[in-house]
Every structure is written in structure tokens, then in C-alpha cells.
Design brief:
Shape of chain A: globular
Order of helices and strands of chain A: HHEEHEEEE
Distance between the termini of chain A: 29 Å
Mean pLDDT of chain A: 96
Oligomer: homodimer
Helix content of chain A: 25-40%
Low-confidence stretches of chain A: none
Largest sheet of chain A: 6 strands, mixed
Strand order of the largest sheet of chain A: 2-1-6-5-4-3
Largest interface: A-B, 30 and 31 residues
Number of helices of chain A: 3
């Protein structure tokens, strides 16, 4: 487990909870891709910020992400993170999207700094 | 879908079928990690070759991997591949391991060449 990346994910979750989206963008590379929902990608920081604002609104500004069991596969400057991601929200009962996910995140280290390059909270369920 | 990476995966599957393990290693980076089975990683080309020789023996030299539905999430020089991976083998009925998997592969482009850095055919099932 890469403790630095684990801490980054915790801080990113906290930024989402507190809706500090500019802080949140610091965790992503300039060319990062976020899977907003199956079939919809946000590419680059501006699109990712816009997507998080919409996700927050969808969940009535009450979304709380937390990570459960986590596995990291680290290969040089790249890490594949597998993580149980739990989403809580005031309106979770009516969400069209799963609130318990097996996420896949890819982090890359550039010039000594780990950044998220792929944020796919839906994991392999995109294949279903 | 990155067609170059799709072709690399096809060629790697063919090399596995034909047990051309030295050719197979050309698809991996020097620091690549293969998940041999849950809890067991092979790190680097020598360990990966050794693992494939053992996997081939486990399946009585009859293993045939093929990919079904595939999704690629490409972010700059990194690609997360999600893929239905089907394994066939003469003794598949007695395999302790799933023969139908939702795999996660990470490819990285270095100096214009795509290489596999994380080969995790078990996908997020490692979290179960």
C-alpha cells in the first residue's frame, strides 16, 4: 500500500464532502479522465470540476464518499488502486447509481508527485 | 478504443496460447506487475515469465485466453483497460480460479511505445 496515495485519496474525499472543488483538482493530472457515469467521461480539470458540481447538485449537496477495503498494485511510476467506495447522501434511496462501488483509480508519478490520471468509481461494472 | 493497444492484447493472448513466453515479455515494461492469483504478484520480466510457465503447466499446456467486451479509458500516456477475459483449458472444470474474469490492465506509453505495466486479470474481485 502506497501511504502517500492513500492519504491523497482521503484528502480528495474530504474535499468532495466539503465541496472544495478547486482543491480537489490538485489531485488530478491535467489530462485526467473522470468517469462521471457509465458512458460519460469528463476529460481535463475544467470538465472534472464541472462534473463534480453537477454530481454534488444531483445528491443535493450531501454526498459523503468513503473508501473501504483498498488494494494497490504499484509498478514503477504507476499505481492501479482497487477500492470499495461507499457513497452516502441524503437522497441515496432514490439514486439511479450504485452507492457501493468497486472502484478503479490509476495514479501516476510525475516529477516526484502522485496524481490521479483515471478516476473510475464504477470499476469493471462498466462492462455489464 | 486505442487500436494499437487492442492489437497488443490480441498478440499477447496469441503468444500465451502458443507458449512463446519470450515474445510475451515484449508486451511488458521492465517494472510490470502481473497478478498471478489473488495474493501473489510477479514483478519484473523474469518473474512474469516464470509465472506464465507455471500457469501453463497448471492448465496442462492447453490455456486459451480471449477477450470479450473491452473498454479503454485513455488519459495522456496511460490507459486503463477493462476487459472480459475468457480462459479456456482442457482441465477448466477443475480449475480453482475463475475462467470468466473482468480484467483490469494498465498500459503506459514511453517513448512512443505502449507497454503493459499492470496485468490484473482478476480485476476488482481481489476486493472480495
Amino acid at each position: 500500500m502506497n501511504e502517500e496515495v492513500k492519504l491523497l485519496i482521503e484528502k480528495a474525499d474530504q474535499a468532495i464532502r466539503e465541496e472544495r472543488f478547486d482543491d480537489l483538482l490538485n489531485f488530478y493530472s491535467d489530462d485526467a479522465v473522470l468517469i462521471v457515469k457509465p458512458g460519460l467521461e469528463a476529460r481535463g480539470k475544467a470538465a472534472i470540476k464541472d462534473a463534480f458540481i453537477k454530481i454534488a447538485a444531483y445528491f443535493k449537496n450531501s454526498v459523503v464518499p468513503t473508501q473501504g477495503k483498498m488494494i494497490m498494485i504499484e509498478a514503477g511510476d504507476t499505481i492501479l488502486v482497487l477500492s470499495q467506495t461507499l457513497l452516502d447522501a441524503d437522497n441515496k434511496e432514490t439514486s439511479q447509481y450504485s452507492m457501493e462501488r468497486k472502484a478503479t483509480y490509476v495514479f501516476r508519478n510525475t516529477n516526484g508527485k502522485w496524481l490521479c490520471v483515471v478516476d473510475n468509481s464504477y470499476g469493471t461494472s462498466l462492462l455489464d
